[in-house]
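DM from R.C. (forwarded with permission)

"hey, sorry to bug you on a friday — could you get me a structure for this? deadline for the figure draft is monday and I only need the backbone to look sensible"
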Amino acid sequence: METDPDAQIAKLGYDLPPVPQKAGLYKLVNVIGNRCLVSGHGPFARRNDGTFALSKGSVGESVTVAQAKDAARETAISMLASLRDELGSLRRVRRIVRTLGLVNADKSCVQYIPHIVDGFSEVMRDVFGPVGGVGTRSAVGAGTLPFNIPVEVEAEFELQPGEELAKSDGHIYQRLFGLRSVINGIGSLTSLGGSRMPPAATQAMVEASMHFVDLNSLQRECGKRIAELCRCPPGYGAFITTGSAAGLAVTTAACIAGSNPEIIHRLPRTLPSDKHLVIMDGGNDCRWSQSVMTTGAKVQFLGTLRRPMTAAQLEKELRGPNRGRHACIVFYDQVRPADQVMSLEAAVKLSKQYRVPLVVDAAAQT
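My reply, with the result:
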C-alpha cells in the first residue's frame, strides 16, 4: 500500500460529509468479492452553520468551471465517506479501477469537462497515491443531472486481499493503541487473537452487520448447517457461542440440567442431589475451570502438573463414592508427550462405559 488513506484524509484536512441518502432503488456501495462498485455520487458542500448541502447548478449558466471542479472534489470526498462507512476503513481499498464522470454543462463548456472531472481524480490520487489512486476514466457531458447537480461520478475499486492487508504497515492496532504485531508461532491461540480470517469471512461479517434477524432462529439454522458440515450423527447438533469459555459454560450447564426446566432456571444454584460434579485434569491449564464453575458446578481435579490425570485415576473416580453425581468430564486435547497425557480414545471409552458426558475443549486445535 502506497499510503495510509485514512491518515491522508486527516492530513489533507478533508471533512467527510454524512453518507448521502439514496434517491432510488439501488445500493450506494456493492462489494462483490474483491470488487467494490460505487453508485453515482454528487457534491456536498459544508454550509456556514456546519451542515452539508447538495451543490446545484449547470456549468456555463449558474456555475463556473472553477466551481464545477470544486464540486467534483466534493463529490470525491462524499464517495470516500460512503466507502469508509461500508468498508470500515479505506485501508481495505487497493486501488481505484475506473471512473465515470458526468458534468452538467452547456455546449460552451464542453472543452472543460475533462478538467472539471480532474477535481475528483486529484482527490483519489492524493488519498490513495499516484498508483492506487489513478485508474481508467471517462468524462462525459450531460444536458442535465438529477437535482440539477453540476457533477455526478460513479467508480469501481479493487479491495485489498486479506493477506496483503494484514501484512501492511500501520495496522489498526498500531494506529489506535500503539501495539505492534507479533509472530504467531503457536497456531490458533485465544490469547493471540484466535486466527486470521480469509477475505470471504470478513466480507460476510461486514454484510451481516447491516441486517437485523431473530438470533434464536439464526442459532437454530446455523447449528443445523454446522452439524451437517461436521457430519454429526442423527440426534446430534451444533451450537455457536462467543468463544471457548462460553462454550464450556453452556455445555457444562447442559450436562447438569439436561432438559429439566426446574434446574435450568435454578442455575447457577445447584443442590447436592444434582449431577453437578465435573472432572478435570489437574495437569492442564486450569484457568478455564472458572468457565465451568460459573454454572454452579463443583470441579474435581485429578492429577497435577507434574503427574497429569491417568485413565486409572479417572476410572477410579467414576466408579467411586461419587458415582451417579458426575455431570461431565472436561478433557483438553493438548499436545504433550505421549507418556504424559491420557489419550482422547481412553477418555471416550470411559465416558461411554460409565455413561458420563465427555466435553472436549479442542479450541487450539481447530
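R.C.: lifesaver. The longest strand covers residues 93-104.
me: no worries. The first helix runs from residue 5 to 12.
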